[in-house]
UniProtKB/TrEMBL annotation, chains A, B:
Belongs to the CREG family. It holds the Pfam family CREG_beta-barrel. Residues 1-25 form the signal peptide. Keywords: Glycoprotein, Secreted, Signal. InterPro entries: CREG, CREG_beta-barrel, Split_barrel_FMN-bd. It is found in: Secreted. Its main location: secreted. It comes from the Eukaryota. This is CREG-like beta-barrel domain-containing protein.
Amino acid sequence: MLPPARLAFAAALLLILQPPAPAVAARPIVAGKPAPSEAAATARWLAAQNTWGVLSTISSELSGAPFGNVVSYSDGVPGEGHGIPYFYLTTLDPTARDALEDERTSFTLSEFPLGTCGKIDPENPTCAKLTLTGELKMVDLQSSEADLAKSALFTKHPEMKDWPKNHHFQIFKLEIENIFLIDWFGGPKPIDPSEYLEYGRNQGPLRSS
Amino acid sequence: MLPPARLAFAAALLLILQPPAPAVAARPIVAGKPAPSEAAATARWLAAQNTWGVLSTISSELSGAPFGNVVSYSDGVPGEGHGIPYFYLTTLDPTARDALEDERTSFTLSEFPLGTCGKIDPENPTCAKLTLTGELKMVDLQSSEADLAKSALFTKHPEMKDWPKNHHFQIFKLEIENIFLIDWFGGPKPIDPSEYLEYGRNQGPLRSS
C-alpha cells in the first residue's frame, strides 16, 4: 500500500523507465508520449495515436439525455495528424441524427488502449485522457476538406471505403471549442483550441512511425 | 422418500417458487463472446470484460453540452459480474459534479479494447458496442451495496484503495433505463433493462473468465 506521494513517484518512474509500448495502431505525430508538462503536444499525440473514441451527443430519442457512442475517426493520414477529428457516420445511427438536431458534441479519448499506461489504472491521472467539446458539423462532400478527410479516414480505416453505399455515410468533423486534458496529478490542463490546432505547425517535418 | 417423478415435480416447484435472487447474487458470465443473436448475453459480457469506459454527463460548466470522460468501473468481482456498473469518482472531477446537478448519464463500452474484434474496424457493427443510459446515483457508503461495490471496484482496480483520502472519492452507480447494443448488422438490438439485469440468474453455474 503506497501513500499518494510514493504512488506519484512510482507512476513517474514507470513512465520514465517503461519503453514506449507499440500502440494498437501506431501513427504518432511524435514517436513517444510527450512530457506531462507539454499539454498541447500530449493532446495532439492522443488524437493522432488513437483510431476510435466515444462521441457524445444530446439524445433526441432519449429526451435530451447524453448519449455516448463508439466511433472510428482520423485526424490525418498516419504521421500527419492535424488535430481535427473527422468521422464517417450514417443517419441510420442515432449519433448523426442527434448532431443534425443539436450540434453540441464531445469526443473522448484515452491513452489506455495505446498500451503506454502499462499497469497504471485507466482512471489514474497519469494515464492521459482527452475530451474535445464543440460542434459536430457535416462536411460538404464536394469540398477539398472532404477529400482530405476521406484520405485521412480511409487510410486509417481501410474497410470504410467499402461500407454500404445505401447507408449514405457522410463526413463529419468536430469544431473544437473546449479542451479537457488530464495527463498528470493536479487537475485538468487548460489548452486553448488555437494552441492545440497550431501545435507542430512551425516545427518542420514531424517524426512519423 | 419420493418417487423420481414426484421428486422431479418437487424440484421444478422449488425452482418456480424460489424468490428472485437478490441483485447481488453471483451470476458469472461466460468466458467467450456470446453469439450475435444473444443480445443480453453480449451486453453483459461487454460489461463484465471491460474495466474502463466513457461516462457522459450534461456539463454544468459547458452550458449543458454533453461531456464524456474516461472512467474505470466494475460490475462485480472477476467472473461474477452483475451488470450494474459501479464507479469511484471525486467531485474534483467534472463528471461527479455534473451528475450531482443532473443525474442523466450514459456509459459507453466497446469490444475493441478486449482484442476480440481482430482486424475488424471499431465502428464495424460486428465489433460490439454498448451504451447504457440512465441515472448516475451516489451509493450510501454505509450500505451493504457499498461494501459489494467497493469489493467489485478494488478487485479489478487495486490502486483505487490507495487513492488520496482527501480527494473524497465516492461510489456511484448507473441505474440503467435504456440499453443500446450493436453487435451485428441490422441496427441496434433492443434489450429491456430487466432482461439485461436478470441474465444468467437462473442458468446455474456458468463458466467464469
